Amino acid sequence: GAISSLQRQLEVQESQLRRINWEKEMLQKQLREQEDQLQAMATKIFSLKDEGKHDEMMMATEEQNCRLQQVVTEQESKLAEQNQLLSELQETVRQLRAELLSSRCRIRQQQQAQEEIQSQVQTLQHQELQARVALECITSRFERYRSKVIQAAFSVAGSRAPQAEVTDEEVLEAMQKIINERTEFHQMLKQKGIK
What we know:
By secondary structure, this protein is an all-alpha fold. The protein is built from 3 helices and no strands. Helix 1 runs antiparallel to helix 2 (51-154) and helix 2 (51-154) crosses helix 3.
């Protein structure tokens, strides 16, 4: 949206610039025509032989010359204004182009940042999936190991099979009991001298 707005402003400014250039050319053309008229009048004056007509023509020429000088002055003033406006418009166009370039650069940077973030998200999703698979594998192995420990602990002679789900504490107590009994048995064999 920002780029479209800048481009529209740029087109408007360039259109004004073209119009002012055209007006400037027209003013320059008018100035040249006025100068040509002055030159023609001067040529006419010099070609006149009759003194009376010469004086009349000189007065008329001077009046016309004065009017033409005023027109030339006005045209030059307008031309100066147009040149000033032209400079301002060229500066505005330059600024708009710089803003447009800057906006495009920012958009490219944002797109690159978005692509990087997307890539990171994909990597994290992949790592999460691997972690889930690893967790499921470890959970499965742990459950098998726990099942074997429970089976070993409660299959010993003299122990009762559990009626409900066995907690980790109960499994630990059963294993501790087996270890204690084995230790006592080992001590007893040592006291009797049996290897």
